[in-house]
Amino acid sequence: MTATAGGGVSIAQGLVCPAPLNANDRVQLGHGSGGKMSAAIVAERFWPKLQNSALGQFADASLITVAGAELAVSTDSFVVQPLEFPGGNIGSLAVHGTLNDIAMMGARPVCLTAAFVLEEGLPFDLLDRVIDAMARASAEAGVPVIAGDTKVVERGKADGLYINTTGIGVLDGALRPAPGRATVGDAILVSGPIARHGMAVMAQREGLAFESAITSDSACLMPLVEQLRGLGSAVHVMRDPTRGGVASALNEIAQASNVGVEIEEGALPVPDDVRAACEMLGLDPLFVANEGVLVAFVDAAVRHRALDLLRAHPLGAGATAIGVVVAEHPRMVALRTGFGGTRVVDMLPGDQLPRIC
Amino acid sequence: MCLGIPGKVVELRDDNGLAMGVVDFGGVRRECCLAYVQDDVALGDYVIVHVGFAITKVDEAEARRTFEVLKEMGDTAELDWITQVATDSLAMGGDA
Amino acid sequence: MKFLSEYRDADIAKALIARIKAEATRPWTLMEVCGGQTHTIVRQGLDELLDGAVEMIHGPGCPVCVTPLEQIDKALAIAARPDVIFTSFGDMLRVPGSDCDLQQIRARGGDVRIVYSPLDALALAQRTPDKEIVFFAVGFETTAPANAMAVWRARELGVRNFSVLVSHVTVPPAITAIMEAPDNRVQGFLAAGHVCAVMGWTEYEPLAEKYRIPIVVTGFEPVDILEGMLLAVRQLESGRHEVENQYVRSVRRDGTPAARTTVEKVFELGDRKWRGIGEIPMSGLRLRSEFSAYDAERKFGVADLAVDEPAECRAGDVLTGRLKPPKCGAFGTRCTPEHPLGALMVSAEGACAAYYHIGKYRTQETAGAAS
Question: Which of A63, B19, C17, C135 lies at a C-alpha separation of 20 to 30 Å from C341?
Fold first, then answer.
């Protein structure tokens, strides 16, 4: 039915493209994606008016000294949909997420606070399951929730419930990882399979739903940090690659440390079913969220020891090296493909969207 | 232009006169429309799925036949030989 | 995954690359007209590995990139209506219209949702009878059967609150347009495997004959694409110009007849604008008049919306291989991935964005190595 000849169409010179977008007058979902739009809203709106030296660390948690004690403080809000997903719910996620941010600084979390925004009409049995999961996660980590708050908004004003948690941790010893400490030659390790959380949640979304056995990796990373603690200052950077995935975390580290990052595509641990789900929706697992994986940049000399230590704990059984820090192409992440080709892995502007082409 | 991936038909059913089914993509399953391939697809067959529609059946015999040829090409010894030829031909001015 | 992973085998790919280099006696210029193939070529760095033995021009094969500004603006106008839930494939959400994109419409209160399949949009219409559900029916021949079926089923099931905004294009007229351009450089084509899975390849036979060019129906994985290139190079080296099928496991000469039949029942050929290229006669699909009740343009009175596209971006020249992105005056200055002038800078696989990233990388690598 398709015509095979369109005749001599002259292709007009240099026309047809849209003007740049200039109507960015309000918040979009992409501002919460962990990508470039998130970075921009912080840099352009929050930072100029709220800036101070602690906030300026731009790390998972800020370090401050109070009465001689070095503390790490972090806060995080959880707005996941659906509220319950294979492998956890918003309650366990809210505990793990903030504990992990504290742990990534090498600090030992000592307490949490939790603030709830509940939507009118939320079933109590759902709320109870969320609180149960929080209680379990808090008990397992040995970190109590010491203050809380509850607000209720009208029906339709919140997606069931939102949770904000804040954590405080104490620093001691030589383990002082920071985003700016990546050094040329460092080995880059991940503690386990990537992209599970994002795809477990995606599987439940209206319009994209699929059936799979994929579960969220949501977990408390404190035990893995304890495994590495003995390596002290040889651990240069730790990060839990949540929103924006491993790719965004590596980009942030490359920029903070002014180094190049090089990773091997074949070394990335992506479970088969996660990869299949990504193929189906046209998503790149490097940009999919994790909630129980840590990325560590360690001195090359302790690389094998660090891997052995991670693997000695069940959470780190799948730990593997994925790349190295290089002097070339500072502030950029390059990926070597299985065929020896190279491509740049940039941060995404906003959320990764399923594609058809 | 069109993201289409191969999957195995694991369930067939009729939805109000429309041939539907479940297709398994390496452990991930999704409901797909099989209307366009229903006449030559049975349980266990592979189809290419694009935006929830099976657009063609994968011919396993052809796939095996053509892949064997490629596999032979990927043989390391041959690879080295070809690389050598390529390098030589480049050195001689690219006249293979 | 079966029929996928094996076509990513690095040894086979390396052997194919070596063979292409060995057999090409001069650099050949090929074009793929398929966003999926462009995706693989760019992500795997395949053209870099070919060392110039084959130059790949990334043609107008991405339905997202060629959807004209006019259709995007119609989508934005419809999506902004309070009575509408606007549904779309994910990759259309970020394509800039005249003054915003679908994501910004959502931020302003529009109900814009991503669906995986047009049947999901139809199901949403059945579940939500008090809203108008509009689906953005973009795509090439591969997607047309799915979109046609959604419309067909809507009529069959008597769903009245469902309509489609059609922006369908077809490949052969684009090949004609490229070959007829006075300064065409393309010497052979890789035809899109999934388009041909539906359409077969008979309509490419007169094109290969008329323009004396090899056309190789090609799959999407690295091994497929490299084999497609090799077959095209062999034809060029031996002076042949045929339609050849690399993607034999999925494509038959007559395609998938049942899919074509439904497409023909629902759609008819019509003129269509391509973003960056302009209008190509009889290159698009539009709803047949008996389905006008499902035409969102009519339903929401946007059919007459006409938009002039500003001139600074030269996407048309890039898509037809006459301009390398870095030679464009706006490249990297007034046009970047963060602030794109055109669709080619929007997605990471767009030709301009691909050059932007690689260029930045190579410059920095040189600088880093020197310091």
Answer: C135
